[in-house]
Amino acid sequence: QVSPGLRTPRLPVWLCSVSGRHGVLFGTDSRLLSDWKSERIFHLYFYSGQQEQTQTAHLTIDTHSHHWEESQREDPCSPGRRRPGLEMAIRTKWAGATVSWNGTDPFF
After folding, report:
1. pTM over the 0.85 mark
2. pLDDT in the model for residue 10
3. Sign of the CA dihedral running 97, 95, 87, 58
């Protein structure tokens, strides 16, 4: 028997598999599950348990950013324009969102 808390979580939780590595992406704001207005700017946390990750990554997601705010000088295929796999996974849910790593070096 599956607990009702597992069938209908109280907080947003996603199990991620990016580039063959697994982790948990989660939020602490339950409004993300029921109120689309709370999806403007919000915080998510990521933990993979990998050796290179010493603490949970705190990410700020902005779903109303504009693509023209990014630097137009770089070639889209240049290394400076590449995004970590975790950011790309987040964009499968929130297309076009910008992800701030809040001082943490992007990994994963």
Report:
1. no
2. 87
3. positive
